[in-house]
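In response to a reviewer's request, we include the raw inputs and outputs for one of the modeled complexes. The two entities were modeled together in a single run.
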Amino acid sequence: GQQLNQSPQSMFIQEGEDVSMNCTSSSIFNTWLWYKQEPGEGPVLLIALYKAGELTSNGRLTAQFGITRKDSFLNISASIPSDVGIYFCAGLSGTYKYIFGTGTRLKVLA
Amino acid sequence: NAGVMQNPRHLVRRRGQEARLRCSPMKGHSHVYWYRQLPEEGLKFMVYLQKENIIDESGMPKERFSAEFPKEGPSILRIQQVVRGDSAAYFCASSPGDRYNYGYTFGSGTRLTVV
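The model returned the following structure tokens for the whole complex.
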């Protein structure tokens, strides 16, 4: 089925570094979401984006809705150990179905 | 003020047995979605239900899998005659009415292991 591609698949970074990840699709979406999943838990919504070009922040997290509407980007500034987890993008396909990305696995080295 | 509640958290079944997964949506949410996550993969849509109605089951295998959301009680995802390939984490999510673009609230999942 349809799936979004996320890059990178995984990354190790030092505490205090900034992190960038992206999500690309062959289809246009009208809503992009970013979720974080910690081990043994369900995904938790971080940021929602609704307009092409939109830039939205949530604390140290900033996400952008790509101008082509086929991609989205997430940045984490000054990473800390609790940022570890899997970050998923999700695009709203049609009216109600969210298509999830393959995930970016983040590990932060103290 | 509970979120989406799923039980059990972990479920072990032998091949050929039935697995029954339960999901109670957030208070005030009338729409339920089930997703499956295989190890090291993203979440794949299975089924979307409203009270007493299946709206979209396009992601659910046609054989052995069924889902319901009765007028009273939790939503149930049922897998009959489980096989090893059914081993995965199953997540339930809910949303309030048709405000789909606000995203879903997910439960903590049920991790099914078939031995």
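As requested, we also summarize the result in words. Chain B has a mean pLDDT of 94. The first strand of chain B starts at residue 5 and ends at 7.
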